[in-house]
């Protein structure tokens, strides 16, 4: 932790501004809705990230700080049991108040206080650490804002575009196999900068010989799987995945629509023809595994991915790995509320590696462990094969 | 049907304006949310009532009419199977678009067209009938707007007030019993004005001797029932009602909150102390029946209510009757889509009579048959006893 | 209540024996299962009817009576809140114990005690009344035994027959219309024998002119409705019924199977070709109403049915009426647990009149009010049209 | 695969007989019920294991074999999509037929055929492999029979004992820590005998220094956790586990009952006082993890467990590990239906190692990978701590 206060204050301003700029194209109505439980209303993200700084920095560390509104702890707490009761997750879209204007006032209020606080106090290492965590937390919510906005607009029968200033496409080079030899490798974070607790400890793993593709799977390749009856053949699927296919009548990735016999794809730019040569997006772990099985291959483990990651390009899609999300050897929860950040989710989730077109700049590294439930498709997820 | 075109056009303008004025105190966010399936977002009500005029009058009867937006039929159809697919009811609150501004533009577009149409064409009796139905339909949605807005704001943890320009209170006079002798009576609509199909035919019924209260049940009387253990004693409840009590841990009417040992009630004016002398509100049929049973009395039938209605004041609360919602002798569905208006709901509902503080002026009569499922509390409902 | 003790004891023996004889063709396994919540395991019916006599007669009225097993109150109470906790209804099929042999021992124990009690005590009018109620209660469960056994065997993939000693068929004569003139009529029970509380008070009703068929609807007539697209045309259905059709993909009455393009029907005698000329069976209220609507007619009210019942044959099918199940004028619940018998179900149910091939001899009269939820098909239900 | 035909035939007879002997204490009714979806009726286990031999050996490999009953494939297929439609899992307890006697006849029929087949044919290696798999499969169902019988009787309000000839208790020695040094180890099956596909390939893993207890956790130790508020303190639980606690109001292991302030435990021998010194049983993964967290320790990984397993006693409880159930390096599914045996469950499950008091003799080894969903408690599960 060597960042200067001035640097931290600067980061704070830039990162906080970026959240606002993501929401700039929205109508007020778009800030409010929650079409499924996993998607939060944009105004909730804006409030919740602000609440994080207020709750973990200003209230405990800035004497005399007056909370903006006592009810906001109830409204904007996400899952911190330590910090008290909260609106249940699926009710976030039922709240018309606080209004969007109120939430922006809340952001401004906390920002002013926090920047004043940084300017006028001797800031402890503990606070610096919390600040860095809060900024990384806000960056995670920037990615969620972009995925949730896509879901909200992409599930509206009018299919409004989000923006033409951003693009989801990811061109793919020629696919090739990279080979790695068996032996002891090290994975996990090391060095000076920020990392999440789940990236520690750096530790040794034993890997067998493996090959990994230098390229992601394309829409065209996935179409081939579909046309070969991939969604109708149970042999490629986990039992749980096959149940998911049948219950949801799944036939294609999320956001794909067969309209007058042509595959269309909804993106931030609206509904457009599917571009076969681009990287596949929005498949869940069941689909990624089924595709790999159909190819007679498999997904890489997260250790394989990390070891190989220097040899290929990554960052446009979160890549499903075959690894369940579990603690590394020597993993320790931090004491207090921020200890709830990662550890309590270490069951029934799969690890994704890399980053995506929705990940903010400066928020990715090859030791980053993203994780989601195997059934979820709404993140910008893709497939890299191994064998 | 004797109203002149000029009168109808005038009614049209006034009634359409009244819907807009109901929404005047709202924030844009308040137009969007749907906390439970029975509550629709205010912008949906505004769009749906407009869609009714567009679909049943302008499209079939105004040659050359260009629909405002082809997708709106999908978005704003409520339950008319005849008219095609529609957004499922519980998804209304998941739609951020059309925006509130779009909906107001839609209203203006349809209003201009329709008033032009009325001014420039020989208007058939069929269209007059549809127009009158559309206006009564809009008035029903004005009441729903007021009940739904109350639910949206009253279930927000911040308890924002809707307006101080309107009041829900209903003072009660001295309670007394009115006696009626057994014999043949007539009920159902007769005369020249508008009525819904479910108020026909006027027909004879045989009533036994009965007594009916000239006054509604007060908050104080209901508190007595609660304090006597009314919600804990299965003997007063229907089996289905007792299940409802237990599943919902019901302990009081909707909008009542016990805060620091004091009963508070949320109303359009915000959260305030309960006023015991006022008329009880927001109980469902199970609660109304249980209260009556606890008193050793019963609810009146709809025929008793109608026969007696000239002898007491009514109009502040919809009054649960002991009658199921069934067709009158000789009831006939109209042909076509508007035939779906009432008849298809004639199972598993109970009749409410009277009107409420949310009912628009000019939209009540003593033959009006309102109906809801026995479990619903969110309307402005009350109790009148009989024996 | 004029039956002598000897007559009552005799009735007791015969009725109790009849329940046992109904179960005679069963395998032990058939006594145990509960494929849906509405169907109870046969051994539960045998235990529950025994519990009724033990609980309401022997325990309170026979000094020194020792209960057979203290746990049985928990196991065999159906819905009497007054009498304490009970196994939840949908768990009845999860209990392998008490075994079938235990239940028969329980029956024998209670029968011996009760017959001794009748023989050796001065039996009060109260006890006589309870005994008569208990016998009528057992007869109701004899009908349920036959409907539930049919469901258990008829939903087994092996389609085992129940018995060839009984038949469900009901031949139909020539259909004709019977006309009745408007005026005041009386309905409800009067006279000396037994009736349920819900058949009282006998009271006057006003009926309009009506016509009612002297015959039930045949399988052939219903097939015509199906072939005319009856299950695909929402216009004939209540909104709630249309939801039921779609959620259940309903296409035909219960127990009808289209096998190699031929309609088969499961009956007590096994799976056989549908016989078109026989009376239709196993439709719910939604289906009965939809059929009547398709014919341009309606179902009779329960008052019309009762007034006309002397002019036609009835008794092979429970006939859905258009009347909701509500209290008659002057209806009073009995005090104590048996007061829970009927009144608490008077919401959200429809009345059926007549009797069925499953009704035991001596248990039908034209004032009998049977009632079920509109969605239920598993009783032996049929349709009689009115207009 | 070196077993002789005579040995195999002998094993077949003994193993098949053992399944029957497990059911010997049951009443016929106990064979039928299915109180929760995870528990299958005993007669289903007896039929299903028979169906396995019929379907995978007799039908494809014994020319002229006549199936016992064509419908049984529908009734007794568990989850093999390859082999056609089947009764949905939660409906197994709704089937009274085939009767228990039918199922025993089915067993006898298949046993006779299969033993004849073995005696009179040159048996291929493929068939030998299938036979060995079928016998191991039957042994797995022997364990399930014992866990399911316990559930069926232990959830009956009469709490009948299963048998006094078997005992669940497991005495514990003095607890001590065993230390292992970091380095490369090998795990997975090697050698000549039978193993499941999921135990392959044997492969190298890198382990860090670790300590593992030589003893299981006792009832007394778990009681301490409970009395220290373990079920009320979210900090020890996974988020998913905490939801489970709250939704199920979990307060103790399965089969523990607090009766008149004393902890009782239901076992095969009936309801008895809890014995604190015995090994804990019937906790799920959430509970095991929460207990470990409360102790400031963790569960071992499956690799640690296997490496250390030579140094401690195991076999009385299935021991939850911290490892998700995933394929080993080089894992391959077998072609055809038996390829569905293990691989398709490799998501959302946790690995358990060891064996239990319900595991049949000769069916355990230290490379065996058992797996269940983290929420399940009904197996004979226990806890061994690591750090």
UniProtKB/TrEMBL annotation, chains A, B, C, D:
One GO process term, biological-process aspect: ergothioneine biosynthetic process
Domain Sulfatase-modifying factor enzyme-like residue range list: 175-309
Pfam families linked: FGE-sulfatase (PF03781)
Entry-linked NCBIfam families: egtB_TIGR03440 (TIGR03440)
Protein name: Ergothioneine biosynthesis protein EgtB
Phylogenetic placement of the source organism: Bacteria, Pseudomonadati, Bacteroidota, Sphingobacteriia, Sphingobacteriales
């Amino acid at each position: 932790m060597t960042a200067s206060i001035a640097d931290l204050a600067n980061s704070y301003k830039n990162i906080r501004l970026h959240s606002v700029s993501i929401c700039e194209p929205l109508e007020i109505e778009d800030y409010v809705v929650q079409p499924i439980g996993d998607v939060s209303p944009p105004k909730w993200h804006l409030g919740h990230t602000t609440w994080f700084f207020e709750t973990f920095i200003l209230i405990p560390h800035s004497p005399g700080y007056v909370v903006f509104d006592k009810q906001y702890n109830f409204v904007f707490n996400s899952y911190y049991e330590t910090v008290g009761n909260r609106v249940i997750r699926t009710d976030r879209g039922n709240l018309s108040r606080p209004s969007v204007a109120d939430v922006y006032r809340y952001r401004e209020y906390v920002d002013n206080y926090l920047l004043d606080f940084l300017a006028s106090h001797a800031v402890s290492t503990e606070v610096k650490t919390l600040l860095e965590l809060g900024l990384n937390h806000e960056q995670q919510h920037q990615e969620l804002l972009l995925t949730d906005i896509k879901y909200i607009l992409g599930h509206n029968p009018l299919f409004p575009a989000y923006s033409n200033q951003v693009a989801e496409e990811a061109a793919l080079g020629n696919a090739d196999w990279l080979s790695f030899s068996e032996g002891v490798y090290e994975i996990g974070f090391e060095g000076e900068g920020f990392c999440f607790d789940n990236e520690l400890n750096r530790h040794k793993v034993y890997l067998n010989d493996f090959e990994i593709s230098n390229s992601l799977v394309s829409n065209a390749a996935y179409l081939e799987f579909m046309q070969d009856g991939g969604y109708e053949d149970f042999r490629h699927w986990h039992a749980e995945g096959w149940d998911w296919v049948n219950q949801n009548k799944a036939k294609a990735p999320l956001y794909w629509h067969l309209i007058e016999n042509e595959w269309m794809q909804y993106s931030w730019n609206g509904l457009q023809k599917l571009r076969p040569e681009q990287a596949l997006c929005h498949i869940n772990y069941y689909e990624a595994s089924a595709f790999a099985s159909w190819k007679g291959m498999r997904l890489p483990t997260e250790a394989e991915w990390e070891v190989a990651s220097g040899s290929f390009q990554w960052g446009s899609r979160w890549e499903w790995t075959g690894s369940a999300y579990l603690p590394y050897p020597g993993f320790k929860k931090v004491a207090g509320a921020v200890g709830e950040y990662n550890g309590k989710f270490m069951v029934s989730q799969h690890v994704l590696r890399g980053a995506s077109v929705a990940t903010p700049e400066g928020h990715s590294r090859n030791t980053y462990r993203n994780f989601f439930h195997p059934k979820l498709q709404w993140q910008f997820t893709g497939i890299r094969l191994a064998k």
